[in-house]
Q: What sequence folds into this?
């Protein structure tokens, strides 16, 4: 199995395990990924997910170029491959629960795209980043380009895409491509996941959905967002939060 799931303490780990190929994604892996993401999102025991490699080293070198080169001249294969990658990226980017990318090595091409689709990126000093379609005469998708621009802004996005150069973790932190640089990225990612898992999952999911609306251009409340605000006061998490506050105890969501 090159992709697998584990669950511990309300935290799901989606693990990429193809170290001999620097965790490059094959067609079958792109096709498998959405189902694994959906599996975590519908599991009521999961509050947050960490996307990581099976061992320190490459996060993912992106698409398997050997496989891609072999199939690229077949229009049917190209269409199938494009659809699989698009579905994987969109499913990850639209996951209703928070996703943390734990990056301890090369995070390149489609691998970098996967990290962009996560909510947080925690990187080790050995991590390197790059989006390299310009080295192959290819074009990055609009969906994934928007994720990049939303994260680092247009100028930094242009530099990344126009030069196809790799950048180190320190530079990635400076431009906002990652959120935190830590010697022990696994421990930091786990600590963040535990913090998220301990608060109201209803509030977290609603906040993630609100931020997504804003990133897609919504600037004013509509009937749905107004109802979400109002309805929360009648929900079980609000009742538990108030009861815990009054009793001076930790809320159990």
A:
């Amino acid at each position: 199995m090159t992709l697998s799931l584990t669950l511990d303490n309300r935290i799901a780990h989606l693990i990429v395990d193809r170290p001999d190929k620097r965790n490059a994604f094959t067609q079958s892996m792109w096709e498998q990924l959405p189902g694994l993401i959906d599996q975590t999102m519908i599991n009521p025991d999961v509050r947050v997910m960490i996307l990581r490699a099976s061992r320190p080293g490459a996060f993912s070198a992106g698409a398997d170029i050997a496989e891609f080169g072999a199939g690229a001249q077949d229009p049917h294969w190209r269409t199938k491959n494009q659809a699989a990658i698009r579905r994987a990226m969109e499913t990850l980017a639209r996951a209703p629960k928070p996703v943390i990318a734990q990056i301890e090595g090369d995070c390149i091409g489609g691998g970098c795209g996967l990290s962009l689709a996560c909510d947080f990126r925690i990187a080790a000093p050995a991590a390197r980043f790059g989006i390299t379609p310009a080295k192959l005469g290819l074009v990055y998708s609009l969906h994934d380009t928007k994720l990049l621009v939303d994260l680092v802004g247009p100028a930094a996005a242009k530099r990344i895409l126009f030069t196809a150069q790799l950048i180190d973790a320190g530079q990635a932190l400076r431009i906002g491509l990652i959120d935190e640089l830590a010697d022990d990225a696994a421990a930091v990612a786990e600590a963040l996941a535990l913090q998220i898992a301990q608060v109201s999952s209803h509030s977290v999911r609603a906040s993630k959905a609100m931020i997504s609306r804003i990133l897609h251009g919504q600037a004013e409340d509509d009937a749905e967002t107004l109802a979400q605000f109002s309805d929360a006061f009648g929900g079980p998490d609000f009742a538990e939060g108030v009861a815990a506050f009054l009793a001076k105890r930790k809320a159990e969501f």
